[in-house]
Amino acid sequence: MILDVHNLTMKFDNRTIFQDLDFQLQEGSMTALLGPNGAGKTTLIRILLGMLAPTAGSFQFDEHVKLGYVPQFRNIDPEYPLSIRSFIELNGPLFKSKQFKQEVDHELEEMNLTSIQHTRMGEASGGQKQRAYLAQALLDKPNMIVLDEATASLDPSAKEELMALIQHLNKKHGMTVLFVTHDVPLAKKYMKEYLYLDHGTVQAGKIADFQEVYS
Ligand SMILES: Nc1ncnc2c1ncn2[C@@H]1O[C@H](COP(=O)(O)OP(=O)(O)OP(=O)(O)O)[C@@H](O)[C@H]1O
Asked: Where is the ABC transporter domain (predicted)?
């Protein structure tokens, strides 16, 4: 088990977002975190990343977990001056050793960005930007990665490309993936497990068995 969540409760003022959540994630799992708008998916992620304290309950990651995080899509100013490569290198030391440059080369290659590494981030497409965020997170060599709505606002081919890369990380590197999305068909195609957050509770299972309950 890589994550054990126990009786996790979150309230903002007196409003309960979720109550007594209990679930586990296994090492190497690929889980879609699904649920309607406002169900608390981002709040749950922020708690797990230590950015927000829960009202009650607890969670524990395996002691060997190294987390990577790709935040919700943010617009980058078209005038943003850094190249894709320099943007990725922001997650590194000021003095860039040969080894660090090689690691950047490797992540550019793995994320299909080598040929456009000198394109400015401001000019990059949505999919290229998301792959740059992912490459930046991968420089830390995480063994678990959390992606919040990484494919929202991407065109269909960019979605597929990003998902194929995430699948590659899972298959080739055994990366555990937690992927927040509204896109059930995409999740069914690429993910293996699901968590469904709604009305303050969570359901878990195999993605093949997931049926959205509209209520
Ligand atoms: N800091 C905060 N203070 C008060 N309320 C908040 C705060 N952060 C989130 N909320 C509320 O908590 C609820 C859950 O929000 P959250 O963003 O976690 O949902 P979500 O499932 O990620 O939604 P979406 O799919 O639209 O991104 C929302 O009603 C939101 O307004």
From this structure: 3-215
